[in-house]
Structures are given as structure tokens and as C-alpha cells.
Protein: Selenocysteine lyase/cysteine desulfurase
Amino acid sequence: MNNGIDVVRVRDETPGCQSLVHLNNAGCALPPAAVVDTTMDYLRNEASRGGYETQRDRAEQIAATYTSLASLIGARPSEIALADNATRAWDMVFYGMRLAPGDRILTCRSEYGSNAIAYLQQAKRLGVDVSVIDDDPSGQVDLDLLEKKLDDGRVKLVSMTHIPTQGGLINPAAEVGALAEAAGVPFLLDACQSVGQLDLDVTELRCDVLTGTGRKYLRGPRGTGFLYVRENAMDTFEPAVLDNGSAVWTSPTEYEMSPDARRYETWEKNFAAVVGLGAAVDYALDLGMDAIEARILALGDLLRRTLTGIKGVRIHDLGRSRCGIVSFTVEGFAPDDVKRVLAGNGVNVSVSKSTSSQWDLPSRGLASVVRASAHYYNTESEIEHVGSLVGGLR
Structure:
């Protein structure tokens, strides 16, 4: 089931694999040594040369991060902007939209908590309407219902999460993008969990904006995120804030925004983390995103099958297509207790709570679920080991 990935090699290049079973990649993946070394080398250079001087000396290395991110998702470097995290990247676009009372935002039932809170805040501030599209029988966003809702001329934005934080669902983003494009409505895609896990192409997705993080499936440093803004949609989303990095003060009363996606950035950055992110993206590109996706999805399927065979375990993943994230509960055990038992045996998982998914988990009678998220460096024997630990809870 290697799917073209040299698992022995990538585990040797991942120090954390030697001491634990890490199935919390949807939270924060283990970085390869190349990412750690690149980040630390930049920091050491700053310590010996100075921050501004190192930025100047490493300008090509910093610029290469934009090029690598663009290559990862089929974009142009001029369509990429960097941020401190995926939420701030998303905020820069969403809060810059020119919304008015009565305008409508369409989103999905599996939407992430931070995004939902932003919608609700703008609903209170501006009087916009937030419409949550129901799921179809499989549990993914209902495309027929979405198409009908898009007939409403008040719709100004389609915004949704590609893969939710609370389960293995892969929403049909390309189909959503096609419907939004046909209706002439901008499409904002939160790809926080899919970047680095799935082989993405923004042309196929037909999104106007895509946001992602470095710390999850890309295996980059924490405190890194990015956004893609399609060139001909650049002026649709005026940045939420501007500073000396996103605009130039051209006269006492005038300024000019950057002509490309850098207008969504702020000037100050953790450049050591930026080049670390670039190293992480290059590592993924070297392995091949098609091979990465195939292995992660196969491991996710194996984990689901393994857990399904255990009495008292219930899988809660929805959708026609599912990824490497597996959500489950164990009868008689709170998800936090399952997490603690696994942690005591050297296995990292997470717990997804209803506070991050109020439109989804409560409607299914769930307050929280255990979230185990596989990556390509995990092994089949690790999956079997986790199955045996969960089975031992009975």
C-alpha cells in the first residue's frame, strides 16, 4: 500500500516517527528534518547577521516559497500571499468583502467554527443573511439545493470548507466551484485540511480564493498560512487591512495597493518559518501529491475498516468521498478518555468538539468525537496497533 511513497525513507527523515504513533496530522503534522534544518539555519543566520540583513541575503529563498506554493496548487506566484495562519489568510479576504444588508452568504453544514463565527459577526454588524446548505443523503453538501439557492440574486458569496475539522468528509469542491462560477458568484474555499493531503488544482476547483495552513498535512512550521486569489478576482475582495507591506504610501493623501496577491499580506513575517514552509512544500512536491493523496486515503480507509470491526466502536465520517481523517466514538467511553488512553500508549489523536462544528455534530446527536488523522509516514502496523488499543478498551 506504499502508493509510490518510500515509507522507510520518509520515516527515517521524520524524527518524531521514532518515538510515537502520530495520528493527529489534521491538527499538526510531524515535520521532516529538512523543514527543521531549513528553519533553524535561517534563525542562526539572523542571529549572526541581523534580521533585515538576512532577509535581504535570502531574498531568493523567500521568493521560492511563493513559487513552490503556486506549483503545489496550480497557480501563479503572483496569486499567492503569505499569512501567519490559515484563519488570518481567510479573514483578510472575507472581511474585505463589500457586503450590505440583505446580501446572502451560502455555506455548508460541515463549516469550520472560525469561519461560522465570522459569518455570524457580519450578520450582526451588517445585516447579511447566512444560509446553511443542507447535506445530501451521503452527508456532503447538497449540490442540487446549492444550485437552487444560487438563483437568488442576493447571493454574494459561496464559502465553505473542503474537508471539515470533525471528520473524513471530502466536500465536492470542484462541483461547488462550477455552480458558483455559472451563477457569477465568488467562491471562497477553506482548504486547511486538504492542502498537503489531496492533489489540488485551483483551475479544476474553480475557486476565486483558496486558503491553507502550513502546520497540518504540509508538515511545515506552525504560524504559517497562505492564500490564493485568482488574478481576475483580485479586486473583488479588497484586503481587510493594509500596511506598508500591502500598499505604498504615494503622497500625503494617497496610497497604491500592491498589484498582485501581496496586497493581502502584512509587512512583518517570521521569515524563518516562511522558508521552512517552502521546504515543506518542496518535500511534498518531491514525493508527488498524487502519491501522497493515494497513500493517505488508503491509510484512512484501512483505519476505518480496522475500527469498524471492533465491538462498540462507531465511525462518524460522512460523504461519498473520504480522506485520511477518521472520526469515531467508543461506547461507554468519552472521546477525551479515549484520547488519554491512547496518549498513554504513545499514540497521538485529537478530539473534535461541537464548539467547532455547531451546524453538524449536534444535529447528529454528538457532542464530540475522537479524530484520528493518518499521514503517508504512518504504517499499516501502526493502524493495527491503534485498533488493538481501542479494542482493549472493552
